[in-house]
Structure formats: structure tokens, C-alpha cells
Amino acid sequence: MHPMLLIVLGATLLTVIGIAFGGTFLLRVANGGVPANDLQKTFFRAGHAHAGVLVTLGLLVAVLTHVAGASPGWSAAGAIAVLTAAILVPLGFFLSVLGPNPARPGRMIAAVWFGAASLTAGLAVSGVAVLAEGIGAL
Q1: CB–CB of 25/34 below 8 Å?
Q2: HEC states along 9-62?
Q3: So where does this one cross the membrane (predicted)?
Q4: C-alpha angle 62/64/67, rounded to 5°?
């Protein structure tokens, strides 16, 4: 596995601590300890859920491409793109609804779309790399 990817994966595992802390924040929002309107509650839940799912997916992509024997460069590129989405999508959900009582998402919602593009690119790269290894092994 590419050394840079190992560094990224180690850092990613540490981010799960932050995601877990985010869960405690959501509990405080749900219990009324943190004031939030309905839009904020919805976006906070979406951001938290996407963070957990995309981090898990990014780790899985890294392991899968490595086990399949994809080149370290392609394996790293695909996994890092998926993990970039794991940063951008939640960032967009959380930061687009900051403020005392937003009526609609702000400009930071664009981060969700950039994250979606990064996710798509990472999955395409990784999928083609694993598929190529499978076909090559026939």
C-alpha cells in the first residue's frame, strides 16, 4: 500500500473520534440543549450520517483496491478522492446552516456538490482499477 495512503488512512481512523463526538452534539441538539431550527437539525443529521458512511466507504475502498492488487497510485487516488468527499459533504451540510435561525442553506452547500463530484470520481477510479485487476487475472 502506498505510504501516503497509509498516512491518510491512519488520520482517517482518528477522525472517527470526531464523528463520535459529533454524535454527542446531535444528542444535545435533540434534547434541546443546543438551539437549532428544523433546517439545522435536518442538515446536522445529514452531515453526521454522511461523515460516518463516507469514512467507512473510503476505508473499504482503500482495502478493497489493495487486496485486488490495483496499482498503489490508482488505489491511493481512488480512496483519497472518496475520503475527500467524506470531508466536503459533511462540511457543506454543517457550515451551510450556521447562524441563529437560517431559513435556507447558505453558500457552503456548494461543498456538498464538490464532495459528490469527488465521491463519483473516486468510485469510478477505484471501480475501474478493481475491474481491470479482475479481468487481468482471468
Answers
A1: yes
A2: HHHHHHHHHHHHHHHHHHHHHHCCCCCCCHHHHHHHHHHHHHHHHHHHHHHHHH
A3: 6-27, 48-68, 74-98, 110-132
A4: 110
Q: Which residues contact 93 (CB under 8 A, 6 or more apart)?
A: 43, 44, 46, 47, 50, 109, 112
Give the chain's residues under pLDDT 70. Answer: none
Number of other residues whose CB lies within 10 A of the CB of residue 103: 8
User: What are the cell numbers at 81?
Assistant: 478522492
pLDDT digits (tens, 9 = 90+) for 5-30: 889 899 999 999 999 988 999 999 99
111 touches 40 (CB < 8 A): no
- Quote the pLDDT of residue 79: 95
- CATH number for the segment(s) 3-136: 1.20.120
Instruction: Tell me the domain boundaries of the chain.
Output: 3-136
pLDDT of residue 138: 92
Q: What stretch of H or E contains 3?
A: helix 3-30
